[in-house]
Amino acid sequence: TRVRSSAASDVYKRQLSRDVQAVLATDKVRYQGQEIAFVVAQDRYSARDALELINVEYEPLPPVVDAQRALDPGAPVVRDDLPGKADNHIFDWEAGDQAATDAAFAAADVVVAQDMLYPRSHPAPLETCGIVADLDDISGKLTLWSTSQAPHAHRTLYALVAGVPEHKIRVISPDIGGGFGNKVPVYPGYLCAIVGAVMTGRPVKWMEDRSENLMTTTFARDFHMHGEIAATREGRILGLRARVLADHGAFNATAQPTKYPAGFFHIFTGSYDLRAAHCEVTAVHTNKAPGGVAYSCSFRITEAVYLVERMVDLLARELDLDPAELRMRNLLRPEQFPYRGPTGWEYDSGDYPRALRLAMDMAGYQQLRAEQAEKRARGEYMGIGLSFFTEGVGAGPRAHMDILGLGMADGASLRVHPTGKAVLAISVQTQGQGHETTFAQLVAGELGLSPDDVEVVHGDTDLTPFGLGTYGSRSTPVSGAAAVMVARKVRDRARIVAAAMMEVSADDLDWVDGRWQVRGDPEQSAGIAQIAMAAHSSLELPEGVEGHLDAETVYNPPNLTFPFGAYICVTDVDPGTGVVKVRRFIAVDDCGVRINPMIVEGQVHGGLADGVGMALMQVIAFDRDGNCLGGSFMDYLLPTALECPSWELGETVTPSPHHPVGAKGVGESATVGSPPAVVNSVLDALAPFGVRHADMPLTPAGVWSAIQGRPLRTDLAVS
Ligand code: MCN
Ligand code: CUM
After folding, report:
1. Which of 52, 245, 555, 643 has the maximum number of C-beta atoms within 10 A of its C-beta?
2. What would the pLDDT profile of 115-131 be if each residue is shown by its tens digit?
3. Distance 296 CA to ligand 2 centre (A)
4. Going by C-beta distance under 8 Å and a sequence separation of 6 or more, which residues neighbour residue 266?
5. pTM score, two decimals?
6. Which protein residues are within 6 Å of ligand 2, measured from CB?
């Protein structure tokens, strides 16, 4: 497709000159499964037949598969299409104070270093990506039913690329079968369907099959990390270093448009009171599908938490200290909040020791250690693994965070009908997180209504206000806050109407038990339903006050919210087969005030299962020719009830000081926090064998090889 430059904004033009993803390959296919042609047919069978008629002559070229070899002199250049590109280097990025960190390391008694890989994994939602595009040639309206976690942002992008006026595009994102980050990007298939609809004048549908989804849509992780941690002999952590090689695959489309090229990785000091830290990230191209960012990840916080939690465990082993004790000595203390970390983050609130103590109590930590000692004595290998995580969720504020120039703030609009039934329209989009329930609860709580009386509208750009969408667990921190603020606006309007109804001054009304009540006269009060009817009636309202009962708002969050948690995982490892059994998993989460405890628990359950999957089963590996070895669920293993224990959940509540009801996001917490707990547990079990580290996934083969002293490289097929 040609870009009509008149429609392209400056921001977009800047992106075009950079490293964006091709819709269809022209001269060169850069990874297995890259789209090269598309066919429009009346049914999928004829489309398949037509595909057979396309004869593609491929000339095999040497690939770059190993990120660690991508910068070698003479390595094949993946992006030789980019002007002046003679290597596979994408960017170098650093954060923190290098000199201060060097000084901290120089003053330390103990330094521990470790290489580790957070392997490439895939979000694998229940349903794959797809779209139906339909252009009405009379009205010129383009309607897109698409699997999108960010309908408004997608619409803006389509308008910029296609030169179609934005109001002539309607993006509807219905129930999309889960997202987990997979449905944040715009994919070639979406654009092909749109072009197909425009060219044929008929609705065109594109729906991936599972292998296409696994092999070509956005991946996550693929971070080759080197960590170094410095401490005193007493176990006081002084400094942390990280050097990262980030494998972005053939196109850098997902990470480039933000000013954080390595996402939020620089939060890597985690939950600890650390004075000095420095990280360097180098990104490279390889002949793999693009991605590297999304999968319940908070944009690289997953990798950051994994690094620091592994390093703290390795330090504990070096110092011969209990890993819980070492964490207790170094966790940030409640009085340090708001806390500004050495790489510039300001954590809003937290009580970390309380969460860790609760997790240890729930686990019966000391008894577990005693049980482990007994078992070791009789040659059984039980592991106890801890992790403590701090998440940062709820992007903006708009001044600091944008995607392609779109600032990260979210709108909400609320209309209360004369009968007191309310309709809340939000710009985020639910994929199973239950916004219909929790957002209705938020509005109902502010207005004294029943949640049943609040309808939540989302996922349709024609019916909802602009906003950046659902990812990075931002719905509750940003859109949830917008819902509360817009409800408060409506409540303030209702106060004026109520004053007119009861013929008193608005200043004499107090909001009590969900009603506006005349101060000193509890007999005289009005609820929102009554007030809504009055607001639509012939009741005379003060000068300048409009009738009806509705409001709009845009919420620009002052900061991220910082949920956290303490996790403990108990495993049993069979050294003969390398099979790991997760026996218990204790998860204490603090996401501030919980709007709906059952939904929060559901989110945590899902994330914990994700974590078990990543730690033990899931990896997208490649062979030396660049063939993807994770292209079906026969190879890419998802955890089931069989691999998961009965989760033991606990909670503490440290409200966010800047969120209107004190809530923090939670959707990705457990995915971020659980993999290191599982890995730490398995490596704790393997300690008697002298195994220090082994990379995820800790498959039976991986564990067995580690015991034999030959840890596997998990991202490449062993030949
Ligand atoms: N919640 C609550 N109280 C809190 C925090 C959250 O009751 N203190 C509720 C929320 O109101 C919402 C749910 O928990 O109903 C998740 O909220 P939040 O943490 O704000 O996360 P989002 O709604 O923005 O969801 C996104 C997040 C991400 S980024 C991924 S990835 C992921 C996840 O949600 N994808 C999911 N959980 C998922 N769950 C399902 N079923 N499907 C996905 O695709
Ligand atoms: Cu990082 S996966 Mo979620 O943010 O959609």
Report:
1. 555
2. 999 999 999 999 999 99
3. 4
4. 95, 96, 260, 279, 304, 343, 344, 345
5. 0.96
6. 149, 179-181, 184, 294-299, 471-472, 668
